Amino acid sequence: ENSVDEWNAVFPNTPLLSKQGDKQPPYVFVWKTWGKYWQVCDGPSSSLTIGTDDVPLGSYVMDVVIYHYRQKDKFIPIGYASTQFSITDQIPFAVSLTQVNDKDEGDQKFIQNRAVAFSITLHDPSQYLSKSDVIFNWNFGDGSGTVISRELTVTHTYIAAGAYKPQVVVQAAIPDSSCATPPNLPTGARPTTNTLTSESPIRPTEDITT
Questions:
Q1: Long-range pairs of 193-201 with CB within 8 A, sequence gap ≥ 24
Q2: Closest listed residue to residue 139, CA positions, set 159, 156, 163
Q3: Helix (H) or strand (E) holding 174
Q4: Distance (Å, rounded) from C-alpha 111 to C-alpha 102?
Q5: pLDDT at 61 over 90
Q6: By the 8 A CB rule, do 117 and 155 touch?
Q7: pLDDT tens profile 161-186
Q8: Strands 58-71 vs 74-87: parallel, antiparallel or unpaired
Q9: Residues 172/133, Cβ–Cβ less than 8 Å
Q10: Cα 180 to Cα 206: distance, rounded to the nearest angstrom
Q11: Mean pLDDT over all residues of the chain?
Q12: What does the alpha-carbon distance between residue 158 and residue 178 come to, in Å, rounded to a whole number?
């Protein structure tokens, strides 16, 4: 229950604070979401990383209360904050448009027969997609066809004046560690009566989930 007494220097999930060298940590950050607590001892700033395995998709609230260490076993609450975050199975991203060599990028008006740069910014603070193959499928809305790219920025030139509605679809092929090829075992551990040879090495296909 969200009550004043709940935040009154009670740390239910962890033992008493550990020392940092010969000094007690100056601040204690108590994070709360999903009915769980995380206690972080840190300096003037702090961060928390939590797993999202088996967490249903949706919007959640994260609360944090900051305590200041004053004396032995004495912690004074000095701040409180709350923010909302979402768990999604899609890739959050933003697209920005600029015309190459445009003197006024803020007007969002573009001249025909001059290249327009489309730049994508992926929201991936945990680097979950760092080893993934991310592909961008562009349709610039002028009947010129589809452009498939792995680059975060592409350019396109509109040869006729008008209003267009460009679209992009982002896809990520994420390696599945459970499908990785097991390492070769020593020959003595797997004896066989027949030996198979081939003229060229066989390369197993990599299984991925999308």
A1: none
A2: 156
A3: strand 167-175
A4: 9
A5: yes
A6: yes
A7: 999 999 999 998 888 877 766 666 55
A8: antiparallel
A9: yes
A10: 7
A11: 76
A12: 46
